[in-house]
Write a structure and sequence with these properties.
Blueprint: H1 2-12, H2 20-30, H3 36-43, H4 49-64, H5 71-78, H6 87-96, H7 107-114, H8 123-139, H9 144-154, H10 160-170
Helix pairs in contact: 3-4, 4-6, 6-8, 7-8, 8-9, 8-10, 9-10
Length: 171
């Protein structure tokens, strides 16, 4: 088990931040192994950008393909928010949130984490953090004013991707 953890970490440390074929090779090699998702979540504790970028992309891929995640795994994933410091890892988590059954209790810490991302210099991160905030507001009605305020601001964003997402979310 430990050998598999070290092997996965060694492979992911080679990630260049761009290569989808590289990440798909990781999926093909490791995704069927027991504890795959737990290993990816554990790697986030390393707070190394290339590891976090790769691990969060793989978590996103795992969820987008309809794989399950337990409440315990969600809790562990959300405990790693402070370690997600690269914009790419933050983006992957924002893109993953709608695939997570977030509890009402978890919305506040996620809201605090998302708030600075709404004004990030990267348009895609602004786009997906807005999407994530609106998802949280669906779960926690107390966040609706913040989501509506963020939507109103996003309508005038200089980036077309942010404006388009805001229009789609507003409908």
């Amino acid at each position: 088990m430990e050998e598999l953890n070290l092997q996965l970490k060694a492979e992911l440390s080679q990630y260049d931040g761009r290569s989808k074929p590289f990440l798909m090779a990781i999926v093909n090699q490791f995704a069927t192994e027991p504890g795959y998702l737990d290993r990816l979540i554990s790697l986030l504790e390393q707070a190394e950008h290339n590891l976090n970028d790769a691990a969060t992309w793989l978590i996103k891929h795992h969820l987008e393909n309809g794989n399950n995640i337990s409440e315990t795994q969600i809790k562990r994933l959300l405990q790693q928010l402070e370690h997600l410091t690269s914009w790419s890892a933050q983006l992957h988590l924002c893109q993953s949130l709608r695939h997570l059954p977030i509890s009402l209790a978890q919305t506040e810490s996620l809201h605090q984490w998302l708030t600075p991302l709404l004004s990030h210099k990267r348009p895609f991160l602004r786009t997906w953090s807005l999407d994530a905030l609106c998802y949280l507001a669906e779960i926690n009605p107390d966040l609706e004013p913040q989501a509506n305020q963020a939507l109103a601001k996003a309508i005038d964003d200089p980036a077309a991707s942010v404006r388009a997402r805001a229009r789609n979310l507003h409908q």
